[in-house]
Design brief:
4 helices, two-stranded antiparallel sheet, single chain, about 100 residues, Alpha-Beta Plaits
Length: about 100
Amino acid sequence: MNDLHAVIKRPVVTEKITALREAYNRYSFEVAPWANKHQIKRAVEVLFKVKVTGVTTMNIRGKVKRLGRNTGRRPDWKKAIVTLAKDNKIELIEGI
């Protein structure tokens, strides 16, 4: 499982993450549930050509949702917050 494109699924863009990006140069990604911090760091450095100084991961549990009397559950997923070096930034996410 060394495919770097399989480690990072998509960027997570919210108001809170945008504030973190502007203040602390941190970016957030949805990552594969099997990925560890070393794999996430390597994937971000190789795919976006930046220097990563820190990685924080968290497992997000899916919410229970209702539609009428039926209940369902959203899937669980893993989120990684990546801190970049001082002068680095990811251009793809800046434009969103």
